[in-house]
Amino acid sequence: MPEKNPPGSPEPVSWPNPSSAAGPNRGGPTGGTGAGSPPQPPQRPEEFPPEGEVEYERSVIRIPFNLKGAAPGANRQVDVMVFDAYMRLVRQAPVTNGLGFRQFEFTIDAWELTNTFSPGLNANVTFTLSDTVQPRSICIASQRERDYPSLIVYSAIYDVYLGTTRIVENQPGVAYATPVWEIPPRNVTVAFEKPFESDQFSFSAGTCEGMRAITREEFEAGAAAARAVRGQS
Question: What is the per-residue DSSP string for 194-227?
Answer without folding.
Answer: EEEE-SSEEEEEEEEEEEEE--HHHHHHHHHHHH
